[in-house]
C-alpha cells in the first residue's frame, strides 16, 4: 500500500498564485499537498497515495494528456482517483466543449467554475478525500478476502476428518458421510452405535468401552486408536477423539468428536518396525559378509527413509485436517465483514457507474465465497443439498458476464441453449460453482486462447446406463479446444487431489467435487478427451416436470426498516461488530456495542433500556445462548436475535430464539428485526444454506426449508 497511510493532493496550477491558493484550501480541508511545475511531472507523481488531483483547465488545454490518461486507465480495480478541475466556463458541454475531453481522460472529475468561494472548494476537496478513503477501505477488505480464501483452500485440501455425535440418554448416533466411509459404510447407510461397537476388533472392544465409560464418568477427553472390521471383512485402523458435553446442571448429555482412518499410518509404522528388525539382522550379517551385504545396508536405509517420510506426511495431514472446521467458520465471519461494508459502500457510490460496478463485482465474489464456506460447513454436518426445479438455460445465461470475466479475452465463449428444455432438479448454487470450475479448467487448458463451448440438451436413459437410472436428463456440456488428456490421465481426472497443474495452481479437488455433486443429485459426470483436440465435460442432471419457482412464489422484496429502536449488539469480533453497527445505524437505529456476554449483561443490569438484543452465538467465556438465557431471567419480554454461521446449534442448546444466519446483509438484518419485534420465529432451513447469499435486494421467503414437491406445478 504505497503512501496510503498519508494521502496527498497533487496540484498542477502553474499560472500566478493558483497553486498557492489551492494548497492553502487543501490544507484547510485536512489534507497535505504536493505542487508540481509541469504536466509530465504531474503524471509521473500519480500513485496510490494521491487522494485527489487538482488541475486548472487553461494549464492542460492543448497539452498531451496521454501520460495522465494511461495512469487513469491503468488504476487497479479498487481505485478511481478523483480530480478537481478549476475552469472559467464550467463543466457543461454547452458552455465548455473542452470539458468533455477532460471528463473522458480523467473519468472521476468535478469541475469548479471560477470565481468560487473558498468553502465550495473545501467542500469538494473533502468529498473527494472521503471517497478516496473508502477506496482504501475497499482495497483492504479485498486483500483480507484473498488471504482468507487461500487459508480456506489449504484447509479444504488437508481436511480428512469424519464427525460424529452420540446422545448418551438414547445412545442415538449421528455421523457424517466421511465418518461412515472410515467405518466402511456407504453415505446412505444407517449406522447405529451398537453396530459400530460390534465392528470393533474383538481384542480392542473391551478397551474402547472402558475408555468410553471413563470419559462419561470423569469428563476427561476421549482419545483412542483401535482396529475396525469393515463389512467386507477387511481390517482397518481408526483413531477417535471426543469431548463430553454436559448440561447446565453438570449432567453428561452427549459426546462430540472426530475420527480418522489411520490404516496408512499404521502400515507405515509396521513397515518401519519390520525394516528396523531387518536392519538389525543385516547389521549382524554384515560382520560375517561385509562385501556381500553392503549393497543390500543401502536399500534398507532408503526404504526406512521413505517409510519415515510417509509417516511424517500422514501425521502432518491429520494435524492440518483438524483446522478445517475452524478455518471455515473464521472465513464465514470475514465474509460477514466484507459483505456488510461493501453493501454500505454501494449506497455511497450511487450514480458512479464504475464504482457501482466494482462494488457489485466484489459483492458477487464475496457471496460465492460465502456459498463455498456454507458448502464446507454443511458437508461436515451431513446437510442435504437445497434441491429444487431450476431452468438451466436461464442459469447459464445469468452467468454469462461472470464466465467471460473468468476465462479472459483470449477465450471466446459459444453457447447453445434451447428454450424448450424442461427444468432440472438441482441445487442451483452448486451447479453454478461447478460450471464456473469447469470453465476455469477449460481456460487453463487453453493458455494461448481458444473456444469454450457451453451447451444444453435433453437425453432419455432407458433401462439404466452405468451410474444413471432410467429417466429424462439434462446434459450441461462444457467443451474446450485445449491441450486435452491422454487415456491414463483421464482415468485419474476425478481422483481427489490429482492435478496436472503445477504446484500452487490447483488443489486437485475441482473435478472430484463436481463428480461428488453429480452423484448426490442422482446424475453423473462424463469426461471425454483427446490430446491436441480438447476436453468435453458433461454434467448429466435429472429433469423434472415441476416448475421453477418464480419471484412471486419464492422471493419477496426486502422489508421496510423497523421504527427507530435502541439495540444492544453483542459480538466478540471487532470487525463484525463494526460492520453490523454501521448497517443498523444506516437503518436509523441507536446502537450500543458490547464485546462479550458479561459486558452486555452489565449494561442490562445497569438499568439501561433496550428495545432489542442481537448477539453472536460463538463467543469465549459465555455463548450467545447462555447470554440470552441470562437476559431472559432479567427481562423475559426483551426480544433477542441470535446470529450464527452454523445451520444448527449444538444439541443441548435448549433456547428458542430467532436465527440470523451469517453472513447476512442489511435487508436480512432489517427483516429479522421486524420479525423479532413482532414476536415471529423465522423458519430454519434443513439444507443449512443461508438464503441471503443470492442477493441483497431480494430475499428468500419463508419456504426456504420446504420440501421439493411443495407448491410445484406440472409443465
Give the structure's gist in a few sentences.
The protein is of the alpha/beta class. Strand 1, helix 1 and strand 2 (32-35) form a beta-alpha-beta unit.
Would you write up a description of this structure?
This is histidine kinase. One of its GO terms (molecular function) is phosphorelay sensor kinase activity. Its EC number is 2.7.13.3. It comes from Rhizobium vallis. It is an enzyme of class 2 (transferase). With 715 residues, this protein is α/β, with parallel strands linked by helices. The protein folds into 5 domains: 8-155, Response regulator (Rossmann fold, 3-Layer(aba) Sandwich), CATH 3.40.50; 162-261, 2-Layer Sandwich (Beta-Lactamase), CATH 3.30.450.20; 266-321; 388-551, Heat Shock Protein 90; 555-700, Rossmann fold (3-Layer(aba) Sandwich), CATH 3.40.50. Strands 2-1-3-4-5 form a 5-stranded parallel beta sheet, sandwiched between helices. It has a 5-stranded antiparallel beta sheet with strand order 7-6-10-9-8, with helices on both faces. Strands 12-14-15-17-16 form a 5-stranded mixed beta sheet. A hairpin with a 3-residue loop joins strand 16 and strand 17. Helix 6 packs across helix 12, helix 13 (324-348) packs parallel to helix 21 and helix 16 runs parallel beside helix 17 (428-444). The radius of gyration is 31 Å and the shape is globular. It starts with 7 loop residues before the first strand and ends in a 15-residue tail after the last strand. 33% of the residues are buried.
